[in-house]
Amino acid sequence: MKHSISLFLLCFVACTVAFAQNRTLKLDADVTTKDQVTIKGKVVPYTATAGNQPVWDENGKPIASLFYVYYERSDVTDRTTRPLFISFNGGPGAASCWMHLGYTGPKRVLVDDEGYPVQPYGFKDNPNSILDVADIVYVEPVNTGFSRAINDSIPKSKFFGVTADIKYLSEWIATFVNRKNRWPSPKYLIGESYGTTRVSGLALELQNVHWMYLNGVILVSPTGLGLEREGPVAAGNVLPYFAAAAWYHKVLPKDLQSKDLNAVLPEVEQFTVNELIPALARGGFLDAEKKKQLVSKVARYSGLSEKVVAENNLAIPTSYFWKELLRDKGYNVGRLDSRYLGIDRQTAGERPDYAAENTSWQHTFTPAINTYLREHLKYKTDLKYYIAGQTRPWDREGLNADNTGENLRQAMAQNPYLNVMIQSGYYDGATDYFNAKYNMWHIDPSGKMKDRLDWKGYRSGHMMYLRQEDLVTSNEDIRQFIIKTTPKPGQPAKYTEAGGSR
């Protein structure tokens, strides 16, 4: 009997220790699997490495461990000319699973052609992945995915701020490139949402601190990047997005609704820049008759009533628009993708009860990423995968102020090879497409680098790649961007007196 009890206790202790070890953060370890995917009709073999790499402080002491998944095409022997994509999502507490299992990776979540959840949850091969033309690493900053600080005593200020985030991630990237021997490779940063703030700052930090020069930066659904647009500009710039969302839901006047979206939006954009923003600048001193005319036009383009537009003095808050656009039908529209509908407790009110699109996306991605990492890639841990981790308060003041648009301009000016592509969904109400265009116009006020800045629009929302048609187009746009940003053999990185860098 004593012997049986001893065996039971021994087993209990052993199992407890094993369980505790599984809950322990991995500091520096990885597991590699092999697979293949058919892209554009050709079989692409690859290795997938899921692992952790430390973050060190200024004294060389580990303070965090970042989780990553790294894909390498395995039939390539010479990587000196093969691009390396370094991919970040945003939040700033959002995991990298969105672009990983939604956009550029070799596997993709199971959704319908418009991006809505289907069951059973899971994933499938992604025939539109860019793995045929580039290797990719998906990086999880602290408190996203399986990434954590090593203990609670580490100051959050080491990670949770605009500049702090850029600083430690640049160090991490430099170490990763060293370990994987990717210094000769053309390198690209791609970021979504707050990830665009992140990669815009990283472009300059990598150059100035690590002497690492990039070929390209891709901004997917970009933030404001710290570029000034307060007052009338901020209030006016959202009207083209209002028009896009209203067109999608078929609430514009018949003459506009009968036109294609790409025929409607240029008209609204011209009105916004040439009439609405100057009128908003006049505030309460705008001529009464002129204001009446503008109220009528804003109502015409936004799908809202003249009464609502007048009550808001031509400047409708986006949160109110999401609630108001389909109020008479009993629905609100999504913030990040206004194709999605939500149902509130009551139709009255000034903002939706919840984000209809975000709950739909988490519905899809949470089971898929957990199954994929733990079962398919064989990464074993009992840590919770943070789809949306706690990163508040996020410091944006003082040394952590957001100057990332200017950072990106400086990086481009210093590096004639560096090009930027912006990708936006027309129905994104959080980082709207017209403000993304505004970013492009104002990153370089001199206009001397505008041939290296490009914008692409898609008929979906914040995660444009969830819609099948846009998944195909947006990945092809990345392929063309790689071609554009690959210098010819022997072509120097220099400016010419005739203008341009090529």
Description:
Residues 1-20 form the signal peptide. One of its GO terms (molecular function) is serine-type carboxypeptidase activity. It holds the Pfam family Peptidase_S10. The chain has 502 residues and is of the alpha/beta class. It has 2 domains: 22-227 and 367-484, 3-Layer(aba) Sandwich (Rossmann fold); 232-357, no CATH class. It is 39% helix and 17% strand. It has 15 helices and 14 strands. Strands 1, 2, 3, 4, 7, 8, 9, 10, 13 and 14 form a 10-stranded mixed beta sheet that branches. It has a two-stranded antiparallel ribbon with strand order 5-6. Strands 11-12 form a two-stranded antiparallel sheet. A hairpin with a 5-residue loop joins strand 2 (42-56) and strand 3 (62-73). Helix 3 (162-180) packs across helix 4 (194-210), helix 4 (194-210) packs across helix 13 and helix 8 packs antiparallel against helix 9. It is globular and about 70 Å long. The N and C termini lie far apart (84 Å).
Brief description of this entry?
The chain has helices at 2-23, 97-104, 162-180, 194-210, 232-236, 239-248, 254-257, 261-281, 288-302, 306-311, 318-324, 356-376, 404-414, 433-443, 468-484, and strands spanning 29-39, 42-56, 62-73, 84-88, 107-109, 123-125, 135-139, 148-149, 187-192, 216-220, 332-333, 341-342, 419-425, 453-458.
